[in-house]
Design brief:
Elements (H helix, E strand, L loop, with lengths): L1 E4 L6 E4 L2 E4 L2 E4 L4 H6 L8 E7 L5 E7 L7 E7 L1 E8 L10 E7 L5 E4 L3 E7 L4 E7 L8 E3 L21 H4 L18
Antiparallel strand pairs: 1-2, 2-10, 3-4, 5-12, 6-11, 6-13, 7-10, 7-12, 8-9, 8-11
Length: 188
């Protein structure tokens, strides 16, 4: 398992090692020990899975307020997505900056999105399945969002189409207007 630090503090691209032969392949998608060795102490408590039938489906930008904030380990197990993390920690030198990476069933890459970041993805293929681990259970009263096309964040979505979104995501506020209790340098 290879851990690649991104320019956003705490965000990692993870490449599992795959072992294949004439029968197919095998990989570890998560190893507590290997994450510990990489300096990542995580206690995942829930696995989530989503399915999007149509290409161009966009989910996010989502996060949960502290003390119910979530770290997410995201992977695409069918099809391809463009996965995005946005730094929303007030006072951070990278506040409002984002990273995007293609995750697919083929490349098997994963994105680790820590607490203090908003998360979203756009499907680049039909019939895309996304699985992600979280270290805190879903908390509806702490669930928040930021509009996917906030011009101050300026995410460069790879498909030049009007995305398929939920009503909730379309009504999300901009980053400057979103409720947010994350402060750079404070424990979450």
């Amino acid at each position: 398992m290879k851990f690649h630090k991104s320019f956003l503090d705490g965000v990692f691209v993870i490449e599992p090692q795959t072992y294949g032969d004439h029968r197919g392949w095998f990989m570890e998608s998560f190893s507590y020990e290997k994450f510990q060795q990489a300096g990542l102490e995580l206690n995942f408590v829930q696995d989530n899975q989503s399915f999007s039938a149509e290409k161009g489906t966009l989910r996010g930008l989502h996060y949960q307020l502290s003390p119910k904030a979530q770290t997410k380990l995201v992977r695409c197990t069918k099809g391809t997505i463009y996965d995005v993390a946005v730094d929303i920690r007030k006072g951070s030198p990278t506040y409002g900056k984002w990273i995007g990476i293609e995750l697919s069933a083929e490349n098997k890459k994963q994105l680790l999105v820590p607490k203090g970041f908003a998360h979203a993805f756009m499907t680049l293929t039909e019939d895309a399945e996304v699985q992600y681990k979280v270290d805190e259970v879903y908390s509806p009263e702490n669930d928040r969002g930021i509009i996917w096309n906030d011009p101050n964040i300026a995410i460069e979505w790879p498909l030049d189409v009007k995305p398929i979104t939920s009503e909730k995501d379309e009504k999300a506020p901009s980053l400057k207007d979103a409720e947010n209790n994350f402060v750079f340098g404070e424990s979450i």
